[in-house]
């Protein structure tokens, strides 16, 4: 039985990547006024990756990457009005309602009666704090950690602060790169619940089946895979 269960936020508890995907569609539609559609997506992804070390994860970094990509692909021909439209795309994302995934509230309520729950999410501090508050789930979590990266060192530090041995910890998330591999690497256990869209930066091969790794179709299935 785990001593604590950690949950990712974006695309594990609430929808997130669908909002980015819809905004990228709007950005592409805007850019085709200037350049062929095929030039837009790859340039934006490359710019996002290059900017991660400066801007980190989240809507604000994405918005800045869209602006920079627009300037690059148009040869600085993009109008001030279209730059404003891109800024408005970002504002719309930040104001978007937090929509919980199916079964999340019931599952979290059920598990919070049995286990200490941790929310471990990465991204812009202000944006993540806002989403957590608007989700209505904050009071169910014993610990809330907003981090800039989710790697082995980060998880080890979180567990050390909590006084939890890695072998007694279970992490639940949608990202193999951020929620599964680093936790397995430090000796923890992980449950992968795929989301229907994965950001290109998070795509890595799924590890081979192994002790400590479970794959579920829905968060609703999680309580049934935990000991009574």
What does this structure look like?
- The chain is an alpha/beta fold and 228 residues long.
- It folds into two domains: 4-15 and 99-225, HAD superfamily/HAD-like (Rossmann fold), CATH 3.40.50.1000; 17-95, Orthogonal Bundle (DNA polymerase, domain 1), CATH 1.10.150.240.
- Helices cover 45% and strands 12% of the residues.
- It is built from eight helices and six strands.
- The protein has helices at 17-31, 40-55, 59-73, 80-95, 104-112, 125-135, 152-162, 176-185, and strands at residues 4-7, 117-122, 143-147, 169-173, 189-192, 213-215.
- Strands 3-2-1-4-5-6 form a six-stranded parallel beta sheet, with helices on both faces.
- Strand 4, helix 8 and strand 5 (189-192) form a beta-alpha-beta unit.
- Helix 1 (17-31) runs antiparallel to helix 4 and helix 3 (59-73) runs antiparallel to helix 4.
- The relative contact order is 0.17.
- The model has no long low-confidence stretch (mean pLDDT 94).
Shape: elongated
Number of helices: 8
Radius of gyration equals 19 Å
CATH superfamily of the largest domain: HAD superfamily/HAD-like
Poorly predicted runs? none
Helix content: 40-55%
Strand segment tally: 6
CATH class bucket of the largest domain = Alpha Beta
Provide the spatial order of strands within the biggest beta sheet: 3-2-1-4-5-6
SS-based class: alpha/beta
Quaternary status: single chain
Q: Based on the structure given, which CATH architecture of the largest domain is correct?
A: 3-Layer(aba) Sandwich
